[in-house]
Structures are given as C-alpha cells and as structure tokens.
Design a protein that fits this description.
The chain is mainly beta. The chain has no helices and seven strands. Strands 4-5-6-7 form a four-stranded antiparallel β-sheet, with no helix packed on it. Strands 1-2-3 form a three-stranded antiparallel β-sheet, with no helix packed on it. Strand 1 and strand 2 form a beta hairpin. It is rod-shaped, with a radius of gyration of 32 Å.
Length: 118
Amino acid sequence: MQAPPAGWYQDPGGPGLRYWDGSQWTQHVRPRDVAPQPVAPQPVAVAPQPAAVAPQPVAVAAAAGPPAGWHPDPTRRFELRYWDGAQWSEHVATSSGWRGTDPIGPGGSPATAPMPAV
C-alpha cells in the first residue's frame, strides 16, 4: 500500500488539520477553516538499498603503526620490549645485549603501541 501524497489532512489527534510530509505527520497544524498555503516540495534523497552481501574483511595497512622492533618497555620492568607490529611480545632486552622473556600477563599487553621514533 502506498502512502498518501504530502498535504494537509484531518489531524488524527485533534480537531484541525495536520501536515503529512508524504511519509509521516509533521508538527505543523492549523485550524480547519484556514485556506491551505502552498508548500514547496522538499527534495528527498533516497539511498539505494544494496543487496544483502556478506561483510568482507578489511586489510589493515602495515604502515598504520610503528614498525616491528625493539622499543622502550611500556611496563618499565625492562629497558626494551619487542613490538611485533600489532602487540607487545614477552621478549625483553637491554641495550647492552642481554635478552630474556617476561610474560606480560592475562589479556596480553598494554593497550598502547610504541611511540614512533623522532
């Protein structure tokens, strides 16, 4: 069933007239005995409805964050911690060459990525 065209109609909630915009009632009302005033049609943008399509994975550019490498340890337990390009690893080190492991704990890692070198 198609909706009636835009115009003044009997107000379903009162004694006067209410303006129907072609899809819903507006807040505009007037007494029944007043001559209708012309209303300029308003353009309505209708977006085409896409066919149902399964979401596609979006590739994330590798350049979006700092490159993988040794960065200051965000936990501050060691001098350096390895950032794999997506998350902090358990690999830790010092600038003098010592290397070891230090699990970060449940949930994986601090939420922040290393700051890019300046």
